[in-house]
Task: inverse folding
């Protein structure tokens, strides 16, 4: 029996099994009513494309202050807050959330200054570190080429984004990030890798992408056992004008 015939017979058999299993069924026999998903009131649309937090989100930055954040030594976060916007202060280093997270949905909006200068990685570079470990790149990738696994929306030095969905400098970009935390074996290797889906301005950049390990500037990813971690925002050492963030919220999953 050749392969085509074998597949045909298999399909015929499974098809008839499926049909016989359906006999005598009523619509309500494949419907269930519990548990009822919680009601979540969605946020409001913002001018320029973002939207505010839904009712069950943890607010990380709502334009007022950095009370949810600290520096990486545990002291106060000292980036600049003005007119509802958070701007990187490169003299103060990275900042991270005080709270730690496992799997989550994160919303964060970011803006490259209209007057940005520089090229490649030295043009509006920042980053969102998932669980403080894995950098989702933030960069001005609007008419600015660099290595593709280092452009905006890349898992840095690992996976290039599926598209370049940048808005131009001066406009707000929106990241919606769905992250699944890894599970480790006792020996410190991954039982299941971390995974991430990233949507920028409504365009999918990462689709359930497997994260290979830490996002190193030099060398290959390392596997480092960890537990819950913060959201960390990068203060990058490039000389270009610092970028801004607004409207940052997260939902545990
Ligand atoms: Mg970066």
Result:
């Amino acid at each position: 029996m050749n392969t085509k015939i074998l597949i045909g017979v298999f399909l015929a058999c499974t098809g008839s099994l499926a049909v016989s299993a359906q006999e005598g069924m009523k619509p309500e026999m494949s419907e269930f009513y519990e548990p009822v998903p919680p009601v979540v009131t969605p946020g409001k649309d913002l001018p320029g494309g973002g939207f505010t937090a839904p009712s069950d989100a943890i607010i990380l930055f709502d334009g007022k202050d950095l009370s949810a954040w600290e520096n990486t030594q545990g002291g106060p976060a000292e980036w600049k807050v003005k007119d509802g916007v958070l701007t990187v202060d490169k003299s103060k280093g990275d900042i991270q959330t005080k709270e730690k997270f496992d799997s989550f949905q994160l919303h964060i909006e970011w803006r490259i200054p209209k007057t940005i200068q520089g090229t490649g990685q030295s043009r509006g570079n920042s980053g969102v570190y998932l669980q403080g470990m894995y950098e989702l790149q933030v960069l001005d990738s609007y008419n600015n080429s660099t290595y593709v696994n280092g452009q905006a929306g890349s898992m840095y030095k690992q996976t290039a984004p599926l598209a370049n969905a940048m808005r131009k400098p001066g406009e707000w970009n929106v990241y919606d990030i769905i992250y699944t935390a890894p599970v480790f074996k006792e020996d410190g290797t991954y039982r299941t890798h971390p995974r991430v889906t990233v949507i920028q301005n409504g365009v999918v950049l990462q689709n359930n992408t497997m994260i290979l390990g830490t996002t190193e500037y030099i060398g290959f990813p390392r596997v480092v056992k960890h537990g819950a971690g913060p959201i960390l925002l990068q203060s990058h050492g490039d000389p270009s004008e610092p970028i801004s963030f607004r409207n940052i919220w997260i939902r545990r999953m």
Q: What stands out?
A: Confidence is low (pLDDT under 50) at residues 5-13. The two ends are 49 Å apart (CA to CA).
